[in-house]
Structure to design on (309 residues):
């Protein structure tokens, strides 16, 4: 369904800039990689599955002849993998102008990462916390870090006494907590950059209701509701395909008027579809006391300490 508003044609050229995108082998991440390549950026596809990432890169080159692409293998649920990938990116690229923390999952059953973290929290939040901190010294002076959030953050809650969710687990609560953690991180990161007088900007964006791999991991009813061709006449009013859903992320990444601490998302029905614009995060995502505590906990769990020099 065509929707009027900001499109990729409104973005300035990104020639000469390097963009690192996690989870760029499918869904929103792949659409972001396609968009940045179209704008002329050199794109690093940081993905868990090297085979699908390589295939995605080949498809992008077919669509954007001459695109400069690099594939780096990273498993955000494994802190050692994140460190290896960060070192590889630093070794291959002189600077990073854009980091899009996009990759994510929503587990139906409780699982722990190899490091002992609850899977959603350890992957979506702690994996990106580590990656961003390690890459920060390579981010250019006017660089941007875009954290891909979700409307789900509005119902999230963080119990610092039960980060492993030993006392209770549901797929929805684990996911919303991880997304709230990412949002708290994005805004706290920007405050710390501002305090350090850095011109690097940290923003957040969400794709609304978008048909992505995260939804394919859910129960059969949700899979049917999102993907059934017979329901397109109805669901297209509330659910977008990745090329539309990614526009919020690409606007946060490229709009010259966007500034640190902002949050972009669809402006249509229920904030699930429509053109991207500046939207308001929940009060929970702006709780500075919780954000500060979460930052300290993340540093302790990952042993990554940000350098703002």
């Amino acid at each position: 369904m065509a929707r009027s508003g900001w499109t990729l044609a409104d973005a300035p050229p990104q020639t000469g800039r390097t963009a690192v995108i996690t989870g760029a082998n499918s869904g929103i991440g792949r659409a972001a990689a396609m968009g940045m390549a179209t704008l002329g950026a050199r794109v690093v596809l940081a993905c868990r599955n090297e085979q699908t990432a390589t295939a995605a890169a080949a498809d992008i080159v077919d669509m954007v002849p001459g695109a400069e692409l690099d594939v780096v293998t990273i498993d955000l649920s494994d802190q050692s993998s994140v460190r290896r990938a960060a070192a590889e990116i630093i070794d291959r690229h002189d600077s990073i102008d854009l980091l899009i923390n996009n990759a994510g999952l929503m587990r139906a059953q409780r699982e722990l990462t190899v490091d002992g973290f609850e899977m959603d929290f350890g992957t979506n939040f702690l994996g990106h916390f580590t990656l961003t901190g390690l890459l920060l010294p390579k981010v250019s002076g006017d660089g941007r870090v875009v954290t891909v959030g979700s409307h789900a953050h509005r119902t999230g809650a963080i119990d610092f006494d039960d980060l492993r969710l030993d006392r209770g687990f549901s797929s929805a609560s684990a996911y919303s907590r991880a997304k709230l953690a990412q949002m708290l991180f994005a805004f706290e990161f920007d405050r710390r950059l501002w305090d350090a007088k850095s011109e690097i900007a940290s923003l957040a964006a969400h794709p609304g209701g978008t048909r992505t791999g995260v939804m394919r991991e859910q129960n059969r009813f949700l899979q049917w509701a999102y993907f059934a061709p017979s329901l397109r006449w109805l669901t297209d009013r509330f659910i977008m395909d990745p090329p539309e859903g990614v526009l919020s992320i690409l606007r946060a990444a490229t709009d010259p008027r966007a500034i640190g601490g902002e949050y972009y998302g669809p402006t249509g029905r229920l904030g699930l579809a429509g053109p991207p614009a500046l939207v308001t995060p929940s009060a929970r995502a702006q709780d500075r006391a919780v954000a500060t505590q979460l930052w300290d906990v993340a540093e302790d769990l990952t042993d990554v300490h940000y350098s703002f020099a």
Observations:
- The two ends are 46 Å apart (CA to CA).
- The first strand starts at residue 18 and ends at 22.
- The CA atoms of residues 31 and 153 lie 23 Å apart.
